[in-house]
Amino acid sequence: MAKNGLGRVPAIPMAARHMSYWDMFATWVGANANNGTWYIGGVIAACGFLTASTTLIVAGIISYLLLAAASYMGYKTGLTAMTLTRASFGLRGSLLPSVINLVQFIGWAAVNTFIAATSMSFLFHDLFGWPVYGKPGGSMGVVVGILVMSVFHLLSVSVGQRSVQLIERIGIVLVFIFVIWETIVVFKTVSFHEILNWQPPHNLKMTPGAAIDVLAAFNLAWVTAASDFSRFTGVKRNATQAAFLGANLGLFWFAFIGVIATIGTAITLNHFDPNNSDPSTIASKLGLGFLAMIVIILTSTTANAVNLMSAGSALTNMTRRLSLKVSLWVVTLIACAVTFLPLFVASFLTIFTAFLDGIGMVLGPEIGIFLVDYFWLRHRQYQIDDFTKVHGKYWYQGGVNWIAILVWVVSVACYIGLKHVAVIANSIGATFVVIVLSMLLYGLLMKFTQRQVQ
Fold it and tell me: What are 244-260's pLDDT values in tens digits?
């Protein structure tokens, strides 16, 4: 491990890597087989079944090809995702992607915790007669649920990466059983023909482009965490293929269940309300009972094991003084505090959609920049010893690669602009267009200026 005043580079040597194909596959299935993915499916149900299913597949494949590429970087170098951004953004410039990752993964942890706490309010109703969330006095169950889930999360991150492996190995089996059960119950309630032909009310209908941007924001969050886990495997196939297949399986299955369960509930009740797309509300209305709520809570823990690990890695890269274990405790406590926001600020759906829009805006350019830097400009070769060297290869100007910062700012501005161009915003969305733009702009500017290019 290299040291030189800017902190150590925690590269994992090949001999110390023990994640198997199944471990990696289970990690990424578990990352997406959760409440948030179900909720996303419920949100894009506003497109209608065919459009929602098509955009789900297209956005998933594109996003997780990028995940496989980022995962390869971790496998080759043994470094965390945010440490790797020092090469493209500069040793000090990597603070920008680290802040983005810290905020987004704390946000995702809060999202999953809130949905799980909602499930716990239903459990408390069955056990103690407390009002469920959404009814007068229902906030008490959610508050207690948030605190209980936060204790679970503190326990899950207390032993670091090993806890992720253990949680995913156990959780993935129960998740599969639950999803199969959920699928059977939904199709017993309504027919596939009814789901296929259902259309949302015109005033609530979502365009394909809007759905792609929602899905892209959801999927791309994992791309910036890929190396945090692939650095623990010494086999390329585990890092790339297992990550791609696992993430897509978790996404397709759980989001698909979210789509059909939300549509099925709308048909059954003759009323569609995207605010009621969370799995707890749907499970309750479909009569899935106590066990369903337990599994929903478990999936929050499996997903947040990944979210909190990535947020902790980002914080460690930012401070370069805190150990990973301390960082994990810090981000878990912050996530607990953030989870209370929907109780006091706005509805959960309002905060969630604003959160997704912000993620899509800032993540796409970051991903385009660090992938092009590694695969095109550096030809898949980084000098790890220079990751902590002042005036080394990745120092640029004062520790910042201002070209990367400029491209990121311009790309974010383009995203905002494209969201107001109806022909793009309503058809293919702005996110993937901006990723391609950031790749081209960064690659060409770096080539033109001949800075740090081998």
Answer: 999 999 899 889 888 98
Tokens (6 digits) for 41:
């499916």
Residues 339-382: tens digit of each pLDDT? 998 888 767 777 887 888 888 899 999 999 999 999 999 999 99
The pLDDT value recorded for residue 166 is: 58
Q: Which residues have C-beta within 8 Å of that of residue 127, sequence separation ≥ 6?
A: none
pLDDT digits (tens, 9 = 90+) for 285-306: 555 556 666 666 676 776 677 7
Q: How far apart are CA 352 and CA 346, in angstroms?
A: 10
**Rounded CA gap, 439 and 444, in Å?**
8
Nearest to 350 by CA among 38, 32, 52, 43: 43
In the chain, how long is the greatest CA-to-CA distance? 68
- Considering 7-21, 264-278, 297-311, 358-372, the range whose residues carry the highest mean pLDDT is 358-372
Per-residue DSSP letters for 230-280?
HTT-S-HHHHHHHHHHHHHHHHHHHHHHHHHHHHHHHHHHT---GGG-SHH
| CA atoms within 13 A of residue 413's CA, in its CB half-sphere | 6
Average pLDDT over residues 129-134: 82
| Residue whose structure tokens are 């009310």 | 201
Tell me phi and psi for residue 400, to 5 degrees. Answer: -125, 130
β-sheet bridge partners, residue 400? 397
Q: Which residues contact 440 (CB under 8 A, 6 or more apart)?
A: none
Residues 6+ apart with CB under 8 A from 334: 106
**What 3-state class would DSSP assign to 290?**
helix
Among the residues of 190-235, which ranges form H helices?
192-197, 208-223, 226-230
Of 216, 219, 218, the closest CA to residue 244 belongs to 219
The full set of domains in the chain, from first to last, is: 17-449 (1.10.4160.10)
Q: From CA 165, how far away is CA 160, in angstroms rounded?
A: 9
pTM of the model: 0.84
pLDDT-above-90 percentage for the chain = 42
Whether residue 90 contacts residue 401, with contact meaning beta carbons closer than 8 Å, is answered with: yes
| Cα–Cα nearest to 140, from 156, 165, 120 | 120
Query: What 8-state DSSP symbol labels residue 452?
Result: S
Spatial CA neighbour of 399 closest among 101, 96, 2:
96
- Residue 22: count of CB within 10 angstroms of its CB: 15
Distance of CA 408 to the CA centre of its chain: 20
